[in-house]
């Protein structure tokens, strides 16, 4: 897992969400997404398992003036690694899910993003690949779902279009004029929100403890049950100290795992 | 000049602006614009002098699920003909112009469009071709300029992206839930806004009269002077009866055209 250094972060024009493309397929679409991002002041790009490897000359060619976004892209082998250092995660998807994750329209979602960024949080916005979009397991990692209200009779938009609309909404809620605004990093409250990797470790701690107790039964329901549980954990928005406390709680509980 | 019949208009899902592509070049971009339109419930497409003629198989191929938009497209040889039956015209352009035409951000522009459509007006939104965008002469036809606030360091967006953002803003100000709303045509006030063809004839009447008086002097300034004058006329938003009145005024004035 590669973290963004302070100097890298400072090189960005201003704090902005990072866009995470999950298993994108065509280099052209990655390049077009990079252009759309930069059109609206977003330059942090992360890729999870790009199908055709990385770097990808087609992405660079399509990005043209936005080559800096492509050159700065970070590649990860899992979504969890890509969002490990983020405190707030948004999943973009058109479909309703079985999850209880709140669904927001773009403007409301980007207002939340803006609030989080103003507090010094790192925010990731997830986009699915061309074929299937985000999986339910991917969406379970998100604090909120961003859904673009398209024409029900002709709903599907492509990856670069989704990136364009989300970046556009970002620029709407955080206009370029605001630039001189806050020194975000200094505003972190004393008990900061936990980074995603910490929440993930906490959830894994719980899942392991529950497995030891045979909690996930019947076994064919395990996928749904873990997904819903993880989504609830993510949504809770635990702070760093709460995560520490809960590790203690689970540790304490799992010591009794051999009873009953 | 082809007018949309009542039955054609009724075939649209609901009243919406028409998108006018002025001298578009690549069929693929026309097709991509058609898709973007239909994603957000806009289906009326007009083309002014498409470079590669019409119909264009590349546009149809790219439009795929939005072929109905391509099939229903109307082709015109001049912009004036394309907007002749419209009462309100919006020009999309990133650049500032010498014109006094008011410049609005997308949301404000589409709110104006929505108000006009609610009153029964037909609204055109103009998009320039890939190479040069809209000319100053094109923009002089518009009541307002819609300008997308992009990153000053990387500002240019393509035709299909501009169509996507404008259609998206249209759906934002006029959500799909509003469908059953107003029977727009019945709401026209007694003294309805003049159609663009009527304003155009009125302006031509004036220009001819002014030419007869040698008003446009020096001659190399004629282009700027006529453009500004036309823009002022358009912006005035004359009603049908005002246009009739002003024809009388100009006729009366030009009878004296042979005096000093």
Write up what this structure looks like.
The structure is a homodimer of 260-residue chains. Chain A is 44% helix and 10% strand. Chain A is an alpha/beta fold and 260 residues long. In chain A, helix 2 links the parallel strand 1 and strand 2. The model of chain A is unreliable at 1-13 and 179-187 (pLDDT under 50). At the A-B interface, helix 2 and helix 8 of A face helix 2 and helix 8 of B.
The greatest interface between two protein chains, and residues involved on each side, is: A-B, 28 and 28 residues
Rg from alpha-carbon coordinates of chain A: 19 Å
β-strand number of chain A: 7
What is the overall pLDDT average of chain A?
84
Report the oligomer. Answer: homodimer
Structural class of chain A: alpha/beta
Number of helices of chain A: 11
How much helix, percentage-wise, in residues of chain A? Answer: 40-55%
- Anisotropy-based shape of chain A: globular
Query: Distance between termini of chain A?
Result: 39 Å
Order of helices and strands of chain A: HEHEHHEHEEHEHEHHHH
Largest sheet of chain A: 7 strands, parallel
């Amino acid at each position: 897992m590669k973290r963004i250094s302070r100097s890298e972060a400072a090189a960005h024009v201003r704090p902005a969400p990072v866009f995470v493309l999950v298993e994108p397929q065509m280099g052209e679409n990655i390049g077009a997404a990079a252009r759309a991002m930069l059109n609206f002041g977003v330059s942090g790009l992360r890729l999870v398992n790009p199908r055709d490897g990385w770097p990808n000359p087609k992405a660079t060619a399509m990005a043209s003036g936005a080559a800096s976004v492509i050159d700065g892209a970070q590649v990860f082998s899992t979504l969890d690694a890509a969002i490990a250092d983020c405190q707030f995660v948004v999943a973009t998807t058109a479909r309703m899910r079985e999850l209880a994750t709140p669904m927001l329209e773009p403007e409301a979602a980007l207002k939340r993003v803006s609030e989080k960024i103003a507090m010094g949080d790192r925010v990731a916005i997830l986009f699915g690949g061309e074929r299937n979009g985000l999986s339910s397991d991917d969406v379970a990692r998100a604090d909120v779902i961003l859904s673009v209200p398209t024409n029900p009779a002709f709903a599907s938009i492509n990856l670069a279009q989704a990136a364009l609309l989300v970046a556009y909404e970002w620029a709407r809620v955080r206009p370029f004029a605001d630039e001189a605004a806050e020194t975000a990093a200094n505003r972190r409250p004393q008990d900061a929100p936990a980074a995603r990797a910490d929440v993930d470790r906490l959830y894994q701690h719980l899942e392991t403890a529950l497995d030891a107790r045979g909690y996930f039964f019947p076994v064919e329901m395990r996928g749904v049950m873990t997904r819903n549980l993880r989504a609830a954990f993510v949504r809770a928005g635990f702070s760093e100290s709460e995560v520490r406390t809960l590790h203690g709680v689970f540790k304490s509980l799992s010591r009794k795992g051999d009873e009953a």
